Amino acid sequence: MRKIPTLFIRDSKDMRRLTRERHPDALWVGGGPAVPTRKYDGTCLMIDGAENWWARREVKPGKASPPHFQPIETDPETDKTVGWEPIDQSPFVTAWQDAMQNPETNVLAFGTYELIGPKVNGNPEGRERHELVMHDMADDLGDVPTGYDDLRDWLADFDGEGVVWHHPDGLRMAKIKRKDFWVPNETKPGSDG
Q1: What is the reported pLDDT for 193?
Q2: By CB atoms within 10 Å of each CB, which of 23, 29, 79, 133 scores lowest?
Q3: pTM of this structure
Q4: Per-residue pLDDT for 32 more than 90?
Q5: Beta-carbon count within 10 A of 107 CB
C-alpha cells in the first residue's frame, strides 16, 4: 500500500502541524465525486492473489529490513521505507489469528484490510475481539466538509480516527486524521480546556 497523501500540506518547521494549503495530490477532493470513508485506527494487512497474508511495515533509514520484506516506496520527507512483511513474522500475528476466528471478520477477496481490536494500538475502535475490516468496505461517511475550518470542526465531534477520500478512478486517495489538527496539549474546538 502506497502512502496516502494527507489532505493538507504539513508545516515543514513542525511536521505535527498542518498548513491551510491543500496537498497537490489531493486537489481533487471536494471538487468532484470523491467518496469519504471512515479511517479505522489499527494496522494494515494484505492478502495477495496467492492467499498469502502480509503486514505493513516501515523501516527507518539505516536499519536493516526484516527477512522477506517487500519494499513499496521510500518517503522522501522521512526516508522511511514502507512495504510488506509476512504476517507470521509480524508482532500482530496473534491478533490476526484471533481475527481470522472472529465471525465478524469477513475476508471477501484479496486486497488490504485494517486489523483492529484489543491488542492493536490500545484498541481505539473499542472492539471486544480482533477483527479485519476490508478497506474497500469501510463505512461511507456521506457529506464530509473539505475546507480546513469546517473539516477541523467536523472532526472535533467525529468518533473515528479520520477520513479517507476515494476517487472514482479507484487509484487516488487522500486522508485526514483527527489528530492532524491538534498537537498534543492543545485545546480542541468545543472542549473545556
Answers
A1: 46
A2: 79
A3: 0.83
A4: no
A5: 14
